[in-house]
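Collaborator request, handled under Task 6.
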Amino acid sequence: MSPIEIILISLVLAVDAFVLSVVAASIGSLPTTRSALRLAFHLGLFQFLMPVMGWAAGTALATAIAGYDHWVAAGLLAYIGLRLLRGSASTSGESNQLDPSRGWTLVTVSTASSLDALAVGLSLAMLQIHIWLPSIVIGLTTGFVSLAGILLGARFPKGLGRRAEYMGGVVLLLIALRILVDHLRP
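Structure tokens returned to the collaborator:
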């Protein structure tokens, strides 16, 4: 696998993490530099770990996972998307914001945005390609792209919080729908 192919795969896999990062920063869910760095780090870490796990599982697990991986990824993204929509529709003075840099929300967001990387790891195992270099590049790329998304999202005016939260929810639901449509097509 060429370096250009590895970089392209890394960028494609980082798209979901970028969107999540922009939304989290634009709605004010990352109040400190530490929370922003924690989110970017974990998104990159999960993107690094998933290909390694997929590669380790090898071809024996490929057929077992192939039947439902898209349901898990779509379900996790839809869950977060619906929570964002609910928060944007809140009638209280404050939006019901999730802190994507803590607890189960961090695990859910990191897992949902990296399930495609698990499939990449499985594919690389089937092609008998060593996993360490691609996984490191995928993880680092996602971490830096997430950080760029956070910096971009933080530049949005805070008054856009509810609209950004709503749009983020819609985007995540559309990504979940795309995953299902891509996997359910004959």
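The cover message to the collaborator said: "The chain has seven helices and no strands. The radius of gyration is 16 Å. Please let us know whether this matches your experimental observations."
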